[in-house]
Amino acid sequence: MAKPIRGDDPFNILDLDDIPKAGRDIPARPAPRPHSPNLLEEDEVLSGAGKGEARKSAAPRRAAGQGQGQGQEAGRNGREGSNMGKSEPKRKKNGKKKMKLWLKILIPVLVVLGTAGGTAAYILMDIAGSYDPVALNEAELGFDSVIDKNVKNIALFGVDSRNGLLDKGTRTDSIIILSIDKNHNKVKLSSIMRDAYVNIPGRGMDKITHAYAFGGAELAIRTLNENFDLDITDFATVDFANMAEIVDAVGGVTIDVKDNEVSYINGSVDEQAKVSGKPATHISGSGTQTLNGIQAVAYSRIRSVGNGDFERTERQRAVLMQLFNKAMAMNPTKYPQLAKDLLALTKTSLDFGTLMGYAPLALQKPTMVTTRFPTDSDYKGELINGTYYMTFDDAVTTQKLHDFIYNDIMPS
Questions:
Q1: Phi/psi-derived region of residue 330, left when phi > 0, alpha when psi is between -120 and 50, beta in every other case
Q2: Among the listed residues 405, 373, 385, 10, the one whose alpha carbon sits nearest the alpha carbon of residue 206
Q3: What is the rounded distance in angstroms from the CA atom of residue 174 to the CA atom of residue 317?
Q4: What's the mean pLDDT in 27-34?
Q5: Residue 188: which residues within 8 A CB-CB, separation 6 or more?
Q6: Are 22 and 380 in contact (CB under 8 A)?
């Protein structure tokens, strides 16, 4: 299969625990390095410990490539206007009348444009001041070079932080790679299974969900980059309480709720309403309906119905896709306020200039596609020292992930 070519990154930016169904047999991996008990799931039992081993190298990296753009300059020639004769007083008088007429038209236009420009500048400054981007140490991200200059990968982390802290110390319930693919005019969401057994730098083999708890966004990004041969340098983290606010900001999301999901949604709504201090609004039944923020978060967190964590990631991607669709359908004049609201609820490394560089993407109406990794055929559920892990063929999974992100090939 064709592999992407590395190049320069233009996004700097000037470019305005249910065990799932078992898959293919894979040899057992060594036991994980022991970690702090407060990072364990309620259904994880740590009965022993062993040394973690270094990850086998994933798909080979690609040869560097460069692209150059060329600009052209064009000159403009002006013409001199002729002077009006001094011996023609009547024409001079008419000229004054015309001048007064033009001033009457031009001055209001300039005032309007000046006011609009000032308003736009105020709005942009207001948005820029609504959040403080996180500075990452790129040397600690396990990042070599950009794989494809027209594809930007951003790590999205969803955490359950009841104290409002979005730094290390909490597991990521949701790990998604957001890929902005200009080659195919698509936005892609790749869910990484939280139980995936990976090498966490400095910690050994463990569940990928623990990387954020051990070292925050930097370690979580490095874990993704080194295990899947990626080039992620930015992230955005949101907790579930703020996720509810984001859903409400776009007017809710349309979801087809199944019969067996109703009671779980309402139970979670009660819990979240108690924590947030907001009223609990239950859904009345199954079927396609608009969920508010708390209901949507409750829906995306269901694990006990269907195919465990696999179906939960499907629900999470469904909510994100609906968020994307609602945002794309909004009047563009509402984007500045929406951006301000969302940035205030998010911890991110994306600076304001970079975010503004993506703004034109909304006008191109990109398609959103989603999937998850590892696929059914590439993993095996294993109990290691009494704890469930999802072991997988890392080379095959990396190749499929790259094919999806860069070559627009859905995994089989």
A1: beta
A2: 385
A3: 10
A4: 49
A5: 177, 178, 179, 181, 368, 369, 370, 404, 405
A6: yes
In the structure encoding, which two tokens stand for residue 148, read together? 């494809």
pTM, full prediction: 0.69
Query: How would you class 295 by CB atoms within 10 Å of its CB: exposed for 0-12, middle for 13-18, buried for 19 or more?
Result: buried
Nearest to 11 by CA among 231, 341, 336: 231
Structure tokens at 91: 């024409």
- Which residues in 146-169 are b (16+ Cβ under 10 Å) and which e? bbbbbbbbbbbbbbebeeeebeeb
How many helices (H) and strands (E) the chain has is answered by: 10, 12
Which residue is listed with tokens 């038209």? 105
User: How far does CA 112 lie from the centroid of its chain?
Assistant: 37
| DSSP-derived 3-state class of residue 238 | strand
Q: What is the DSSP string of 195-234?
A: TBEEEETTTEEEETTHHHHHHHHHHHHHHHHHHHT----E
In the chain, the N- to C-terminal Cα span, in Å, equals 13
Helix ranges, 250-393 (H): 262-276, 293-300, 308-329, 335-344, 352-357, 359-363
Mapped onto helix, strand or coil, the DSSP state of residue 347 is: strand
Tokens of 372: 């998850």
Q: Which of 72-76, 333-337, 347-351, 394-398 has the highest mean pLDDT?
A: 394-398
User: How many residues comprise the chain?
Assistant: 412
Q: Which residues contact 371 (CB under 8 A, 6 or more apart)?
A: 189, 190, 191, 404, 410, 411
DSSP result, 174-200: EEEEEEEETTTTEEEEEEE-TTBEEEE
| Measured distance CA(11)–CA(356) in Å, rounded | 11
3-state secondary structure of 68: coil
Residues 215-235 pLDDT 10s: 999 999 999 999 999 999 999
DSSP label of 64: B
